[in-house]
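Homework help board

Subject: predicted structure for assignment chain

Our instructor gave us this sequence and asked us to write out the predicted structure in token form, then describe one feature. I got the tokens but I'm not sure how to describe them. Can anyone check?
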Amino acid sequence: MNFPLPYKKNYAPVFLRLIFAIYLFLAIKAGVYTNEATDQYAENLGKLGLPAPAFMALLSTWSMLACYCLIIIGWKTRWAAIPVIINFAVAIIWGHLIPGHGLSKMVPAIVLLVLGIFFLLNGPDKPSVDEGA
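My token output:
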């Protein structure tokens, strides 16, 4: 039995956007956006056989920072979701499946990939910059 609500707002995307905020906070706290971490990331990408590892590390790191921020505030969310999807699809394939990591190491990348797909298909919903307050 459904009870009609006088006013209904879908806040699920807001809480899902908070997951990106948590990941961003944890990445900043862990020092992901430092030169040393980016150099280590480039070295790891080189070991995996990806072309231009230094460029790829910079591109991946800083595009994720920008895309996370856009998704968190809900501005250009669908466009920001595309690099997130690409980044984490590559991370799952090249960074986890090919080296043979277990599922437990893939969970963060899978979560962010699924969230990227969600935001590409659904947008940010209200409240967000895209949808207005």
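Reply (TA_rk): Your tokens look well-formed. For the description, you could write something like this. The chain has five helices and no strands. That's the kind of observation they're looking for.
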